[in-house]
Every structure is written in structure tokens, then in C-alpha cells.
Amino acid sequence: MWNAEITSSWLAGFTVCLSLIISIGAQNVYVLRQAVRGEHTRACVAWCVGSDALLIGAGVAGMAQLLSSRPDVAYWCGWGGVLFLLGYGLFALHRMAFAQNALVLAEGDAVAPRSVLAVLGALAVITLLNPHVYLDTVVLIGSIGARQAGELKWFFVVGAACASLVWFCLLSAAAQRLRPLFAKPVAWRVLDGITGVMMLVLAWWVWQGLVA
What we know:
Blueprint: H1 4-21, H2 26-37, H3 41-69, H4 71-98, H5 101-109, H6 116-128, H7 131-145, H8 152-177, H9 185-211
Helix pairs in contact: 1-7, 1-8, 2-3, 2-8, 3-6, 3-7, 3-8, 4-9, 5-9
Keywords: Cell membrane, Membrane, Transmembrane, Transmembrane helix
InterPro entries: LeuE-type
Transmembrane segments: 12-32, 44-67, 73-94, 115-134, 154-174, 186-207
């Protein structure tokens, strides 16, 4: 039976997750780009929601405590994340500065559509090699959910998954309305510039935590 305790746990998961994922991250930018292109948007949303639920569930089940007890694992994962974020950011800035307008529009308008496996493969790399994703889902949200009593922790996970679903559906719907704006190369260049700077800032932030 659904009761007040279950509702409280569900709302806790929903609000905590929603407050953390509403930010311009690599995953959000990728989904935004795919939604503007109209290319496998539903598959991208399904991946994001599913991966969020699995990672948060792993954190609730004890992954956060494992990472805390094995600082060497967290350390080398952090360096891998720094390299990923640095490369991703530099690639985005290079595309912003040097890509020809025709190539920018070709990418935005999906002149050469990719298969759903190619799209999800790239999204999986962006998701699973980004340390910020683990910090939000496994460590922060997972550790909060782990404090829920008994089976209530899994209603917390369900609430978090619902928040992820709401956010990515709203993001994809908003992106589709922005298609006229992205008919111009300058809009894609601005998006790439924002992405590149954001990735470099995240790389610096992760690096600072490693050398501190």
C-alpha cells in the first residue's frame, strides 16, 4: 500500500535528482543536439533515464561507500575523467572555431543520419566516462537515498528516475522548438563554445580535487 512514508521517499528522490540534473552538462548538451537534429531522441531519453536509475540504484546499494573505502579507484577514475573532459572540450572549441559553415549545418541538420547504435554508443561514452555523472548519481544522490529506511530507499530511486524522465522529456521538447534557431551556423557555434568552455571548467574542477 502506498502511504505517507513512501510518498516522502519518492518526493525526496524526485526533488534531489531534479535539483542536480538541471544544469548544462555534457549529457544534456548531447541530448539537446540530438533533439534539434530530430535523430533518435526517444532512444537518447530512454538511455539517460535508464542510466540515471541504474547509477543511483548502485549508489543506494553501496557503491558510494565502496568508492569512499577505495580512494585509489576513485583517484584513477578521476584522472580518466579529466582526460575525457579535456578532450571533449577542446574538440568542441576546435569545431566552433574551424569547422566550415556547411559542415556545421550538415551536423545540425543530420544530412548523414547515424544509426541508433552509433548515437547511443556516443552517448554511453559521454555518460560513463564523465566523473561528474558519478558524483551526482552514485555519490551524492546515492548516498542520500541510502539513508532511507528499508525498502523506502527503492522508492527514492523511483522518484529520482521520474525526475530524470521529466527533465529529459522537457529538454527534448524545448530543443525541438528551437530548430528554426539552429538553422543558422552561428547557433551551433555558440552551443559548441558553451560546451567547450563548460567541459574545460569541469576538467579543471576535477583536477583541483585530485591534486589538493
